[in-house]
Amino acid sequence: MLGSRTFYEGWDSTRPNVMLFLNIGSGDAQKFLVQSLGRGLRVQSVGGARKRLNYIAISDNEKEKYKKSALMLESLFIFSTTKEGVEAIVNAQKELSKSVSKKSEIALSKNERITGEKRLFIPVYKPFKVALNEIDKDSTIKMSSKNKDYLTSITKNMKNALIALKYGINDRSKIDEIRGLVGQNKFGTDEKMDHKNSQNLMDKIARNLKINSEKFSEFKKLDDEIVHFKHIGVDDEYKDELEAKIKSIRLKGENYKGVTIDPNFISHYFMPVLHSENKFAWISHIIDDESETKFLKHIKILAPVLDSKYDWWFFSRNDESLDNIYVPYIKDAKGHKFHPDFIFWAQKGDTQKIVLLDPKGLVFSEWQHKIDGYKKIFDESKTYYKDGINLQIVCRVVNDTTDVPDEYKKWRIKFDEIASVF
User: Fold this and answer.
1) Domain that holds residue 87
2) In terms of C-beta density within 10 A (0-12 exposed, 13-18 middle, 19 or more buried), how is residue 354 classed?
3) What is the pLDDT of residues 321-352, one digit of tens each?
């Protein structure tokens, strides 16, 4: 990283894990130096997963395989040509550590009612590459009208050799693909996405002609895809007291520093359920989002309906940072993962219904691509089969907004309509 305080890259760009500060570290420059540390090390120990290795949902064998390599990738190496620069970095980290509480983890228990014969199934996927010209305009690279006009101009007026020389695209087949995309008007239009640098725009197109994505493989029995309940982060000063209260809970819920320890969701995947109307810095990986806590209240109303309709049912919160139940989709010509906030399994006889519900999508634009990805993979009128069980899958966004285009109204339900999908 040389000399620039301005960064134009988005979240998916790479960042250096080696920094050298040249003659910087005294006076006002100390503040810049410390701020610059945040521009380094965007962890991606395993391709496509921006987490440290310990928190990625892969097998223990794979973690062991990557362990030595990941240590280097997960470390930020900082060098300075001045003593003052080194001192500024060390002192800044000392001050930061004073203000950050140390956390430990506590583990909750898997629900004892989920016995061997009660199998919970989830979808799994396999990787594949999709061509940029095969995805729709809503999911592809977006650019301004001015950018489109520029691309039209260069593809009409420049020969392949000149495009290769000017933009460094040496593969003729890539240039031909770009010509085809421009000629077929395959790019989306968004005036807010005005690419000022034509080199960056061409690089982005050439880099994404083949998109890493996933397609449905099969359904499998739930194993270790839900793990967040084993990693409830708690400040050290509260850990022992909270653990003691959790162990003492029986039939009646209790409140601890604003967090409800609730044993009454007897069909939840793990017990007890920890939830709060507010977010607290001292605890993490619990239900503390406003829409999720509202959803829990409606589940209490829903429970008798499911009890009467099915032989058994369970549900679980799905933590997008730790759990591995998702639906792949494409947005801005990149593969993404949609982690619905809650998953339900409801079985009658040999038929199991898997219901994915997401109560966070308050704005249509936030969930359009997720639903588009789901629709391309799953057919809700279809019955899937696995290990003697008939499987049906349903996905809905849950919110009370009315601002939804007609073609997406089917996929949105209100909180008081949750029972309708069962």
Assistant:
1) 18-101
2) buried
3) 899 999 999 998 989 999 999 999 999 999 99
